[in-house]
Amino acid sequence: MIKIVNGILRAALCAAFALVGLTAAACPAFAATSSLNVPADAKEFTVEIRVNEDAPFASAEFGLDIDGGADVKLLKYEKSAELGASVSEMPDEGGVRYANGMYLFGFASVLNNYSGSMNVGTLTFSYEGDAPSTLTLSRMKIARLAEDGETVEGDLREGEHFVINVGRADGTTADPDNTGNSGSPGGGAGGGAVTGTSLTVDIDEGATPLAGFLIDRIAYINGYPDGSVRPDGGVTRAEVASMLFRLLSY
Q1: CA-to-CA distance for 196 and 201, rounded, in angstroms?
Q2: Which run of H or E residues covers position 214?
Q3: Which of 16, 95, 190, 222 has its CA 20 to 30 A from that of 104?
Q4: Contacts of 129 (CB under 8 A, 6+ apart)
Q5: 10-29: b or e for each residue (b if 16 or more CB lie within 10 Å)?
Q6: φ, ψ for residue 160 (rounded to 5)?
Q7: Pairing mode, strands 88-90 and 102-108
Q8: How many angstroms separate the CA atoms of 45 and 135, rounded?
Q9: pLDDT tens-place string over residues 191-230
Q10: What 8-state DSSP symbol labels residue 218?
């Protein structure tokens, strides 16, 4: 419940910022949360990652956190065939490096060959016990080569790009905080919880994560007595306080 309230609070604050004309870039990104229930006899599972990036890029680096004990470990990253033969995995050995409490992986090319929606690779995890775990992609850097072909341009994007709650299909919950969020096989986040050994997640950097999040919680913004909402209008401090009061009374 704490995580739910915190998430709603962040959404309401971002909505208030937007209403008073502040940039949406100041708001934190909201993670797409999925659930994977792994069969009791399965010792491994995989997660396929899809990236949606409008601008052409040459490489991508990712950082993954695993919380919940040592039952789940990242074994390897394998680049997708969609990337082509000229791309190399980073680091070379198994495609994965563990440093500062985080699993690091990615790929690099010598050309800005990639753009749009594409599969960038598959992660293979071991699952030896029964304890639930949470996988969070908390760091991502999309880099592109400048016109000189040597200078690398890119920014480190920190946040929760996706969250996967992993548990056993025999009753160990894959949604430990009872958020009701889950994933769908082969289609990214959203839908019913998946029971199996594979999951596909989408990282859509072009979308505004706040929009879909607020649709289900629009009741916090009652609008005006005439029934209008006036999204392009101004908002007073009293109106912001009213929204936050209804939020905190949830």
Answers
A1: 15
A2: helix 209-215
A3: 190
A4: 69, 70, 71
A5: bbbbbbbbbbeeeeeeebeb
A6: -110, 95
A7: antiparallel
A8: 12
A9: 358 899 999 988 865 433 333 344 444 445 666 677 666 6
A10: G
**Residues belonging to the chain:** 250
CB of 174 closer than 8 Å to CB of 193 = yes
Residue-wise over 219-230: b if at least 16 C-beta within 10 A, else e? ebbeeeeeeeee
What SS3 class is residue 83?
Answer: helix
Do the beta carbons of residue 59 and residue 145 sit within 8 Å?
Answer: no
Residue 209, preceding peptide bond in cis (omega within 30° of 0): no
Contact 199, 42 (CB under 8 A): no
Chain mean pLDDT for the chain: 74
> Are 66 and 105 in contact, with CB atoms under 8 Å apart?
no
Amino acid at 175: D
Q: What DSSP state is assigned to residue 57?
A: E
Check the CA dihedral 84-108-141-133 and report its sign: positive
Distance CA 36, CA 46 (A): 10
The per-residue pLDDT for range 8-25, each reduced to its tens digit, is 445 555 554 444 444 444
CB 122 within 8 A of CB 79: no
